[in-house]
Write a structure and sequence with these properties.
Blueprint (H helix, E strand, L loop, with lengths): L7 H18 L16 H6 L6 H20 L8 H17 L5 H23 L4 H42 L7 H10 L2 E4 L2 E4 L1 H9 L9 H21 L6 H22 L2 H17 L4 H22 L1 H5 L3 H19 L11 H7 L13 H35 L2 H16 L9 H20 L16
Antiparallel strand pairs: 1-2
Helix pairs in contact: 1-3, 1-6, 1-18, 3-5, 4-5, 4-16, 5-18, 6-8, 6-9, 6-10, 9-10, 9-11, 9-17, 9-18, 11-12, 11-17, 14-16, 16-17, 16-18, 17-18
């Protein structure tokens, strides 16, 4: 990598640093904005997540600077005009749907989030147009990922066991070992609850520690799995490729540490879909290697055996208990389809799934704010036009990228494509589209890949069609 960024490289670096900050601070779904309190002091600024709505106002100055740069330099739009037309149709219909929203506050927060998503997508396509600028973009992202993964591993190996032991011992001591202000804070946070007149450690908190599902700097273990799906493939490729000139011991340590942090954190998130998608992505990568067919087949078999064995060990208790989250997801999806059928034109408004679901769900079903399927939620929230526009955009985007990058892209560029593709697949069972750090990162990286896809090679420098013209 060159260490003298110029022009677009400075902007790419700035976007990467911003998205790295987002990975550390904006890991809550945007629909929880009203539930996330603003930090009140420097300690809370450092340790706690920030309200999701802040993310757009952090992004806005960067977007203004990027807009001036685009106007001045007039970069060409890469690829087909459908790949800028479809997202604009989708976003425009979000505003139309918003006029009929059942919850204006939720919809306003969601529209700001979607605006940030489009800014990142177009910034990736119009600014990150060289390999060098893409590498500068990754600086902040991979640094933040490293911090996030270290935090996740620390949660599993140190934080959760020690906090569980501390609560149990404090309860046994009648909480006499705690200063009054600490005891009051734990009561207010729900860590200590009163049952039959006795103060006890919250059983749900103890159960969380027992499960040991890590989340790093995000709010939800499956969201951490999404971040790993996006960024771990390129982190691994760079770990293997950039250490070739180092001593074998140092190189082995760097690669081993990357594998341990990434795969260990993914395993400990407890994300079933995340693990299976990662396994599938590894198989896809294997078939892109220039290896003999027999060796590929043997390696793939070993990969499947190892991956499914680990899957069975990790989730044995889950399936023995009846796989309750799978049934819950089917309930959410059925509600999304039913809502889309009831409100086929405008939906119920961006980000408002929780309202129709509260009316539809059975009394015993657990409440959900999001549909756990980004595509079905688009149909539920913004009707058929919104759902079809989003689905068509994503399908056409990855068909275009896949056809062009499969054979021609460099290894690390293809790894970015594979990570983004895995994250969009995860959207079939999660709500990552509504988490700013995940959605903005995925769309900016996907937009940046259009430059390599439009030229049909990994150099990413050849001319592409101007905005509004045919590819």
């Amino acid at each position: 990598m060159e260490f003298r960024p110029h022009g677009r490289d400075w902007l790419a670096l700035a976007f990467g640093l911003f998205l790295g900050l987002a990975l550390l601070k904006f890991g809550n779904p945007v629909v929880l904005d009203s539930k996330v309190s603003a930090p009140k002091n420097l300690a809370e600024f450092w340790f706690y997540a920030w309200p999701p709505s802040w993310s757009f106002w952090f992004l806005l100055p960067l977007a203004i600077v990027a807009s001036f740069w685009v106007v001045q330099n007039k970069p060409r739009w890469p690829g087909s005009k459908s790949l800028w037309f479809l997202p604009l149709v989708w976003f425009g219909w979000q505003w139309v749907s918003a006029s009929r929203s059942v919850d204006g506050e939720l919809t306003r927060a969601t529209l700001l989030h979607f605006a940030g998503l489009l800014i990142c997508y177009f910034a990736g396509a119009l600014i990150v147009q060289t390999d060098r600028s893409l590498r500068w973009l990754l600086v902040g992202l991979l640094a933040a990922l490293t911090f996030c993964l270290v935090r996740a591993v620390d949660q599993k190996l140190i934080e959760f066991p020690s906090e569980k032991q501390f609560l149990i011992q404090s309860e046994q001591a009648g909480w006499t070992n705690l200063p009054p202000d600490v005891f009051l804070e734990l009561k207010q946070s729900g860590t200590i609850v009163t049952t039959n007149g006795v103060d006890v450690a919250n059983p749900m908190i103890l159960k969380k520690y027992e499960k040991g599902r890590v989340f790093g700097t995000l709010v939800y273990p499956n969201a951490l799995a999404g971040a790993i799906l996006i960024l771990l493939p390129v982190a691994l490729v760079l770990a293997f490729g950039s250490t070739r000139k180092l001593r074998p011991l140092i190189r082995g340590t760097a690669i081993g540490l990357t594998l341990f942090l990434g795969l260990g954190a993914l395993f400990w998130t407890g994300s079933k879909s995340g693990w299976l998608i990662a396994l599938a992505l590894a198989g896809v990568w294997l078939f892109r290697l220039n290896w003999p067919t027999r060796l590929k087949g043997i390696t793939l078999l070993l990969l499947i055996v190892f991956g499914l064995t680990a899957f069975g060990i990790r989730f044995h208790n889950y399936f023995a208990a009846g796989a309750t989250s799978v049934g819950a997801r089917f309930d959410y999806w059925h509600a999304a389809v039913q809502t889309a059928a009831t409100h086929p034109v405008f939906g119920t408004g961006p980000g408002t799934f929780q309202h129709p679901y509260a009316e539809i769900k059975t009394p015993e079903a657990e409440m959900a704010r999001l549909a756990h399927n980004d595509y079905l939620e688009q149909f539920s929230d913004s009707g058929l036009i919104g759902g079809l526009a989003y689905t068509a955009w994503i399908a056409f985007l990855f068909i275009t990228l896949g056809r062009r990058l499969w054979k021609s892209a460099s290894g690390w560029t293809f790894a970015i494509f594979l990570g983004c593709f895995g994250w969009f697949i995860q959207g079939l069972s999660e709500f990552s589209l509504y988490v700013p750090t995940l959605a903005w990162t995925a769309f900016l990286l996907a937009g940046s890949l259009l430059n390599g896809a439009s030229s049909g090679n990994s150099n990413r420098h050849s001319a592409s069609a101007p905005l509004g013209s045919r590819a």
